């Protein structure tokens, strides 16, 4: 009681999540670029929709896996489960939260193996030469190379880093000055902020207000919240392909659907239960 127990395990969780984030980062931008280069123009919305739909299935299976792990005691494999006298309904129960990391990590490793067989370059040399834009760029590069004098001292590392930072700031300024992209970026930030808060606090809300266990709350959210989003993404891709929407048409379509979705989400304010009767908090002791 004099000294609280401390653990450094959170450092490993932090480093593991950082490595996972580094590995996940290239998938979306490079994957969409890969589809955009190799697929037909009218098929790209469907393929991108499939990519995002599959990405939504991951959290769904994650919630279902979390529901299963929450039913298992945290020290499974290290203690005799027959000696455990509490149940998952007990407030002192701690589920095997760590088991999901092992299963998810092994699955991610197996899923990463096929990426090793993708081609090193997105376009073949013949296709790049036939492309007018690429061909013109190659010509300009060739002309530039001819005009540069051959003898040039080798630059230092600091000289290499500074042009990179300068080019990066210039590119970032151009991207953020694009009004349509900047508006889409702000809209995405608002959407993800609300969606993350929704997923984070809804399980606890279901536990407190509806008296559900942690396992059942995760199961219900994984089954009811995420599959409709995945289905909607896939249907949106099909609609864009069928009507061959332009950027303006897609923007109007996205705005209309998002507006209707937020109107429907307002119905959550009318759903709820009365607070639990707690002596001294919600009611008097008498």
TrEMBL record:
The keyword Nucleotidyltransferase does not apply. It comes from the Eukaryota. The chain crosses the membrane at residues 44-65, 95-118, 180-199, 219-240, 252-271. Keywords: Disulfide bond, Ion transport, Membrane, Transmembrane, Transmembrane helix, Transport. It holds the Pfam family OATP. GO terms for cellular component: basolateral plasma membrane. It is found in: Cell membrane; Membrane. The keyword Acetylation does not apply. It is a multi-pass membrane protein. GO terms for biological process: monoatomic ion transport; sodium-independent organic anion transport. One of its GO terms (molecular function) is sodium-independent organic anion transmembrane transporter activity. Belongs to the organo anion transporter (TC 2.A.60) family. This is Solute carrier organic anion transporter family member. It comes from Oceanodroma tethys.
């Amino acid at each position: 009681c004099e000294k609280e127990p401390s653990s450094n395990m959170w450092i490993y969780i932090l480093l593991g999540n950082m490595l996972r984030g580094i590995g996940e980062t290239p998938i979306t931008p490079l994957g969409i670029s890969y589809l955009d280069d190799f697929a037909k123009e009218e098929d790209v919305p469907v393929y991108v929709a499939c990519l995002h739909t599959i990405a939504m299935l991951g959290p769904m299976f994650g919630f279902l896996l979390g529901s299963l792990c929450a039913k298992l005691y945290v020290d499974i494999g290290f203690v005799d489960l027959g000696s455990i006298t509490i149940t998952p309904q007990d407030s002192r129960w701690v589920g095997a939260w760590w088991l999901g990391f092992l299963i998810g990590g092994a699955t991610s490793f197996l899923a990463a193996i096929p990426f090793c067989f993708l081609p090193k370059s997105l376009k073949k040399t013949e296709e790049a030469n036939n492309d007018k834009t690429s061909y013109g760029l190659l010509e300009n590069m060739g002309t530039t190379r001819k005009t540069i004098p051959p003898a040039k001292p080798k630059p230092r590392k600091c000289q290499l880093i500074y042009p990179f930072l300068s080019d990066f700031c210039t590119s970032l300024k151009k991207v953020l000055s694009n009004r349509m992209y900047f508006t889409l970026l702000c809209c995405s930030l608002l959407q993800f902020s609300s969606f993350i808060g929704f997923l984070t606090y809804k399980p606890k809300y279901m536990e407190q207000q509806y008296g559900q266990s942690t396992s059942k709350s995760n199961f219900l959210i994984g089954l009811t919240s995420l599959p409709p989003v995945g289905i909607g993404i896939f249907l949106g891709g099909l609609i864009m392909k069928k009507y061959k929407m332009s950027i303006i048409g897609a923007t109007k379509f996205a705005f209309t659907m998002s507006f209707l979705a937020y109107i429907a989400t307002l119905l959550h304010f009318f759903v709820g239960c009365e607070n639990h009767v707690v002596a001294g908090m919600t009611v008097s002791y008498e």
